[in-house]
Design goal:
Layout: E1 10-14, E2 22-23, E3 38-42, H1 50-57, E4 65-68, H2 79-82, E5 92-94, H3 102-110, H4 116-127, H5 133-145, H6 152-158, H7 163-172, H8 178-196, H9 201-207, H10 213-224, H11 228-233, H12 238-251
Parallel strand pairs: 3-4, 4-5
Antiparallel strand pairs: 1-2, 1-3
Helix pairs in contact: 4-5, 9-10
């Protein structure tokens, strides 16, 4: 599919199957954002784009942002906003229009973060879901051990604690039980592999400790409401986290309803 040309400025929406950047007058509300969507912002003129900056700062949590910069000779006009760009928590900042093609942005969305556990903890903190530092450390440890620990009993031993102690910490914080975090950590890690690798689903499932692709598919459907083929087609990990948080709240595992911006 031929890519639509970018205008001189403005916000674009990039949705599956990721063939073009679609012009939008306003970002859609949270409930209307498609799975795997991303916001694309070509920054060209700080004075004219201050309002766009504010809109992007209040975008839904599950809508990642990729910022496209102008050529170096035009960068001076962007400096007032460029100095504040990290306040938008961009997934990537691509230097120059030459990299601002659908294929380049698609690659950015499919690439795993340098540290998935760190990115996940930061996302939960921004959402207001996770405030307890002790539990935050425990969740990070669960993610780091998820690839080798398939049961909560083994996980607790590796963390030098007991299942009861872990459960007490999570219950006090109003969070799902530790076993749910372990199951989701495994699913999220597999999701990243599905998006960044061309390997067959059953091979990724087996390498990740699932007996077969069917078991993985059922686990994903139960935890986030979609199948591995959906995860592979809809890039990014943020929407996967939001889908899980919502289902946990509906099941009563999360005390606080996950509220989003951009409503």
């Amino acid at each position: 599919m031929e890519a639509a040309p970018l205008a001189a400025s403005g916000i674009r929406l990039f949705v599956p199957p990721y063939g073009r950047f679609d012009s939008v007058a306003l970002l859609p509300p949270s409930a209307s954002v498609p799975r795997g969507a991303a916001a694309i912002w070509w920054l060209t003129d700080a004075e004219r784009q201050a309002t766009e900056f504010d809109r992007l700062r209040d975008r839904p949590y599950h809508l990642p942002l990729v910022v496209l910069l102008p050529p170096p000779r035009e960068i001076a006009r962007t400096l007032p906003l460029l100095n504040l760009i990290m306040l938008l928590r961009p997934k990537s900042v691509l230097p120059g229009m030459s990299l601002g093609t659908p294929e380049a942005v698609r690659h950015v969305l499919a690439a795993p973060p340098p540290s998935l556990s760190e990115a996940f903890i930061r996302h939960l903190g921004e959402r207001g879901v996770l405030a307890d530092r002790t539990v935050a450390r425990e969740i990070r440890r669960i993610f780091d051990l998820a690839a080798e620990c398939r049961s909560i009993s083994r996980l607790a031993r590796r963390m030098y604690t007991s299942r009861r102690t872990l459960g007490r910490h999570f219950a006090a914080a109003g969070l799902p039980v530790p076993s749910h975090w372990l199951q989701f950590a495994r699913v999220l890690q597999v999701s990243v592999h599905l998006q960044s690798e061309p390997s067959a689903i059953f091979r990724i499932a087996a390498r990740s400790g699932y007996p077969d692709g069917f078991t993985l598919s059922n686990q994903m459907k139960r935890l986030i409401g979609c199948r591995p083929t959906d995860v592979r087609a809809c890039l990014g990990w943020e929407w996967i986290v939001e889908a899980w948080l919502t289902r946990e709240w509906l099941r009563g595992g999360l005390r606080m309803r996950p509220r989003d911006r951009g409503r």
